[in-house]
Amino acid sequence: MNIKRRYCLSKKDIKNLKKELNEFFENLDDIIPKKSKVEVVITDNFDIILVDREPIAFKKDNKIIPTIKLLLKFLPNKNLVVVDRGAIRFLIKGADVMAPGIVDANEDIKEGDFVFVVDEEHKKPICVGIALMDGKTMKESNEGRAIKNLHYVGDKIWKFMG
Questions:
Q1: Predicted confidence (pLDDT) at residue 2 exceeds the cutoff of 90
Q2: pLDDT > 90? residue 76
Q3: Residues 88, 109: contact at Cβ < 8 Å?
């Protein structure tokens, strides 16, 4: 992954970033403390947002998506999907989430929403993706792809060092 450019965000841009993250989290002052250095790193694959050199989000289709490292500290209050133990080894290799591996999902998830996948046992985040079906269908379906995997434990964003 090649870094093309990096720059610090202005106070106005930080405010807009907080507004976008507000969709998923409540304690934004904990996520982006007042005196933090907030940067954007533009790579050949995507833009990564760093807070004090820690990747907290990335941009996909001009939308801000939280990273797994941020999810480990602050689990969002919506769009959670729980998978069984058998799915984990595939997801951490970048596989999409298949409906049979889903144990539970927020029923208010709509197709196209960003979702956060956690394991059944410890409720630790495994991947972030885009819902390919609504939450109710995810829970009830026994076949098909349910979530397109965008970011997972061990990928380039996970390994990115600010």
A1: no
A2: no
A3: no
Q: Considering the chain, what is the average pLDDT of its residues?
A: 93
Q: Is 80 exceeded by the pLDDT of residue 26?
A: no
Give me the residues paired with residue 54 across strands.
51
Q: How far is CA 107 from the centre of its chain?
A: 18
* Backbone φ, ψ for residue 72 (5° rounding): -65, -30
CB-based contact 32:73 (threshold 8 Å):
no
pLDDT value of position 162: 65
Spell out the SS3 assignment of 124-135. Answer: CEEEEEEECCCH
- Whole-angstrom distance, CA of residue 116 vs CA of residue 102: 12
Question: From CA 88, how far away is CA 51, in angstroms rounded?
Answer: 28
Q: Are the C-beta atoms of residues 67 and 157 closer than 8 Å to each other?
A: yes
- Rounded to the nearest 10°, the torsion over CA 27, 113, 62, 6 is 50
Q: Identify the helix (H) or strand (E) that includes residue 140.
A: helix 135-140
- Given a contact cutoff of 8 angstroms between Cβ atoms, the answer to whether 81 and 138 are in contact is yes
Sign of the dihedral defined by the CA atoms of residues 59, 63, 64, 67, in that order = negative
Rg of the chain on CA atoms, in Å: 16
